[in-house]
User: Fold this.
Amino acid sequence: MDFAETSCRLFRRFGDKARPVFLRIEREIAPGSYSWSVVGSEIPAYSSRAKITIVPASGAPVWEFDAQPYVKPGATEAMIQWLDRDGAMARNFADNQQLVIRGPRKLDLPLHLANVKAALKALDACQTDLMESWGLSAALVAKIAKPPEATGNPGRWATNDDYPSDDRQKRNEGTTTFLLNISAEGKITACRTTKSSGFESLDKQTCQLLLQRATFRPAEDAAGKPVESYFILTACGGSFPSRRPKAQRQAGENAALSIF
Assistant:
């Protein structure tokens, strides 16, 4: 189990030492959802999204997902990732679940998930502890059936012109993760840093911009009623200008604050 800044993750290793396969289950910020990924030399290096099928051995329902591939140039291993948005697949697993992951290019990967129910319960408890460390109650999170949606143009929430001049001169840069508290009216009521860029001025400036400019459609409960919620996003500050002549610079070599 890994207690990270913005999520909880469970790792398991399968196969032999020569050809291991790694499974990662990550508790997503959206209530009740899980991100699954497998990586190893047994995974085909897909160039685009691939339709995969999860076939349990216990007679549980068969699940289909659009998996996102990730391949590093020159790597001998590949990864695919898919999202169990409502946790339905995880809830239907037996405690010692045998399953096969099938997909294009002869993907046929058997896995044995021993004690998976206890593992997922621990993952949920980890996520609850993480939320509470951010000041979010489990009761608030449990009410959210539909997460908030950003409106407008998030790319304009922080722009090149907003880069603090002192940080620009010192070439300070970094990536920051923020937690926004959102009211039932869709207004941001608080902003806090959950992972710092390493520069307080950059973090503070971006939080102030988010409080001023970010807009959301509020979250909803199961009855469709707007409720309080939260939103996590990442901002990147950096990519500073090169000192080389303008004609020799690479595209994107501009100091910038960007939201993604």
Summary: The mean pLDDT is 82. The helical segments are 88-91, 116-133, 138-143, 165-170, 200-213. The CA atoms of residues 106 and 137 lie 45 Å apart. Residues 138-259 form one domain.
